[in-house]
Amino acid sequence: MDLVQGVRSELAARANPERAAFMSRYFQTGPGQYAEGDIFWGISNPQARDVARRWRLALAHPAEVLPLLQDPVHECRLVALLLWVAYYPKAPKMHQEVLYELYLTHRAYINNWDLVDLSARDIVGYHLWEKDRSVLMELSQSTHLWTQRIALLATFYFIREGQFEDTIRVAEVLLTSKHPLIHKAIGWMLREIGKRDLDTLEAFLHQHSGVLARTSLHYAIERLPPARRQYYLTL
């Protein structure tokens, strides 16, 4: 049994219709919602990660998982990305480049926040750490929700390395977004910056307090002392 058939078979064996119904509501798959039409089998994240662990050594080239990434079932796409995340750090340089390009050219299938959040940092961010990062500005200027979130979450890799400028630049581009999932992502990344450099966080808050969405603000100041939180809430 090849990798794609094996992964799909193992996931199908773990399908849980009751949980699938809950996940469909949670991930907003209804008409007009952000994940309209997505299909869930009701497989938990630990179960999906277990399947990915069982098959990761079978992956010899990043293109092998494309049928999974293009699958209409959410958990198949999830495992495809988990396989890529596990493969990338140990892959030959040529395969890393291929994987990165496949990720960006197939990002239409990376179409929910959980898929973006588990992969953008460890594929896009990792790949761009010592390379030109201008692509992040291009991605952030897209009108596509998940492309915007990929641009921002990719910078989480840089935050962990102590570099915040790219996160600030991407966040500034996205300040005018009306989507709650972008507001949450901006606030989350700002909070991560604040854990490491409070001055950078507070400088951003002072500069953009007039346009920063309230959701972003609440996420960003979550770890500040109560008096500082109250200060920013009243700006």
UniProtKB/TrEMBL annotation:
Pfam assignment, any one: DNA_alkylation
Name by which UniProt lists this protein: 3-methyladenine DNA glycosylase AlkD
Source species: Rhabdobacter roseus
